[in-house]
Amino acid sequence: MSESLLEAIDFERFEQQGADFIGHYDLGQMPRLVAEAIDVSGQCDVELSIDRENGGYRAKGRVRAEFDLPCQRCLDPVRHVADVVVEADIVSEERDEHRHSDVWVLDEKHRLQLRACIEDELLLTIDDVPKHADENDCNQDMIFRATEYEPDEAEVEASNPFAVLKDLKQ
Ligand SMILES: [Zn+2]
Fold first, then answer.
1. 42 CA to middle of ligand 1, Å?
2. Which domain, by its residues, includes 40?
3. How many angstroms is it from 87 CA to the middle of ligand 1?
4. If you measure from the C-alpha of residue 133 to the centroid of ligand 1, how many angstroms do you get, rounded to a whole number?
5. C-alpha distance from residue 15 to each of 11, 53, 55, 56, 80 (Å)
6. Residue 90 covered by a domain
7. Per the count of CB atoms within 10 A, which of 34, 59, 147, 169 is most buried?
8. What's the CA-to-centroid distance between 75 and ligand 1, angstroms?
9. Residue 146 C-alpha to ligand 1 middle, in angstroms?
10. Distance 73 CA to ligand 1 centre (A)
11. How many domains does the chain contain in total?
12. Which of 29, 56, 32, 53 is nearest to 41 (CA)?
């Protein structure tokens, strides 16, 4: 079993050259991820080192987790594997110059909310429209239900004013 990591790191007292953070978070402790995913019983494995670089601190490492998302075609669970290489500058406030790089921003008490930062990294790996790669893997009964509400041709014609004109001309 790996070690459970602290929710936050106090940078007020982080006077070291650097430190390694190797361990895990329970996915169930990540509320925004819980809202998106179906199965969050697993863990997120974290291997991170935070080192001094250019007068500041930089986090580098890898974050891995697996969880289920609802398929947007059939709503059945689809397995999502997140494997992220992290390289983030740790900054006290976000500025324009950070727009093109990954930054983790300290909170007002100079703490790095590491669990929330890792949660962000996981959320970024989720597609806008998660779905089974192959439509044949979808729950076929549910696909049928999702499409059954599309209006059929007769309904479309009935709501089309020109269809009425066409009838009058005959
Ligand atoms: Zn599906």
1. 21
2. 9-136
3. 33
4. 8
5. 8, 13, 12, 11, 38
6. yes
7. 59
8. 6
9. 11
10. 5
11. 1
12. 29
- 65 CA to centre of ligand 1 in angstroms: 21
Cα(71) to centroid(ligand 1), Å: 5
Q: 60 in a domain, yes or no?
A: yes
pLDDT digit string (tens) for the chain, length 170 residues: 789 999 999 988 877 788 999 999 999 999 999 999 998 899 999 999 999 988 889 999 999 999 999 999 999 999 999 999 999 999 988 787 777 778 999 999 999 999 999 999 999 999 889 999 999 999 988 875 655 555 555 555 555 555 555 555 55
Among positive and negative, which fits the CA dihedral 50, 52, 55, 58?
negative
What is each CA distance from 35 to 39, 64, 115, 122, 123, in whole angstroms?
A: 10, 19, 16, 13, 11
Structure tokens at 112: 């790095």
Give a yes or no: residue 95 inside a domain: yes
32: tokens are 């925004």
Please indicate, yes or no, if residue 2 is contained in any of the structural domains. no
Q: Ligand 1 mean position to 128 CA, how many Å? A: 14
